[in-house]
Amino acid sequence: MKGRLTGTLKSLLCGLVLWSGVFAQTPARAPALDLRDLEGRRVRLADYQGKVVLVNFWATWCPPCRTEVPELVRWQREYKAQGLRIIGVTYPPEKLFAVRRFVRKVKVNYPVAVGSKETKLLFTASDTLPMTVVIDSEGNVRNVIEGIVFTEEFDEKIKPLLANQTRKLN
Q1: Which of 5, 49, 56, 167 is deepest in the core (most CB within 10 A)?
Q2: Which of 127, 144, 126 has the alpha carbon at shortest distance from 135?
Q3: Residue 70: strand, helix, or coil
């Protein structure tokens, strides 16, 4: 009886792991995001429909965030024609003058919106910064990347979405 019970539990656990793997791969719709940029203009996720969007939560007081921004600037420049759009979202506490100075200094070429803890909670309860939400051209959250997005991760998780975007445009 004990051996049969153990086998049954193993089968149930395997089934649960397989089911949760399938469930975890089902993309969820991105929540509505309606923020203001550093100049007070609206930044709405809905305006980026049909594009692959990276929503990058960061702060000027976060050294890894500041390290990551130049790479995001490069990706925005190199992959914009393929449908990539990046939205930076500052994370509190922030001093807007410090954010504006940093954005000018590193020549950020994508919108930077003023966020809040509630904004980040729309995507994750994690306190990690930087944190990047990858949204496909259909408006589904495909990945939440905690920490710096490294080139290898960009190649693995974002470039395939851009390739799909390019095929749709042709």
Answers
A1: 56
A2: 144
A3: helix
